[in-house]
Design brief:
The chain is α+β, with helices and mostly antiparallel strands and 197 residues long.
């Protein structure tokens, strides 16, 4: 099986074991690269999957490769001029390239050959919950211990709500707006009116 994969605006045929030269990629030599923009998968005799044409991509298909080396392409001379105007410009250009070695072509739902799947065990969520609860307290630090360990030289103390206040002073209470205070008074049964009713 081989794939038609798009890299850097160009399409390439990627077959396992072959090498392809693409535009410079920001990877280190020897690093694994995954190309996910697969436009077509072509099945060959003996393959388990069928040929798939993407619209525009084949969903779930990918190509794994390894960056072999970084290189530069051949020098291209760019010369431009305007006749009868004494305008001549000569420039050179060399493309920055990366050579990739194709490792695998994976279709939708296929896992890499080196990746093993863990055996499926059926554990209920109730059985998993106590195990998670046993591990959590060992790693967490209680809030009381965190407040006690605060240095005494710090003039600010952190309150329960996260607000800071100067040491020795009680935190300021927020005043209720005027409309809320009147509503509470009426609700408590003070009468609210001056006529005594």
């Amino acid at each position: 099986m081989y794939a038609v994969v798009q890299v850097g605006g160009r399409q390439y045929r990627a077959r396992p074991g072959e090498r392809m030269v693409v535009d410079r990629m920001a990877v280190a030599e020897g690093q694994a690269v995954e190309l996910g923009d697969v436009r077509m998968l072509v099945a060959e005799p003996g393959d388990s999957l069928e040929t798939a044409v993407g619209r525009p991509r084949v969903e779930g298909a990918r190509v794994t490769a390894t960056a072999v080396s970084h290189l530069r392409g051949p020098k291209v001379v760019v010369f431009k001029y305007k006749p009868k105007k004494r305008y001549r410009r000569t420039m050179g250009f060399r493309a920055e390239l990366t050579e990739l070695r194709i490792e695998e072509v994976l279709g939708p739902g296929q896992a890499p050959a080196g990746q093993r799947r863990a055996p499926a065990t059926r554990r209920s969520s109730r059985a998993a919950a106590p195990a998670a609860a046993e591990e959590a307290p060992a790693q967490a630090v209680p809030a009381e211990v965190a407040e006690v360990e605060a240095p005494e030289e710090n003039p600010e103390v952190v309150g329960a709500a996260g607000a800071t206040a100067k040491a020795g002073k009680a935190p300021r209470r927020r005043r209720a707006p005027a409309g809320e205070a009147k509503a509470e008074t009426v609700a408590e049964g003070d009468g609210g009116g001056g006529d005594g009713s």
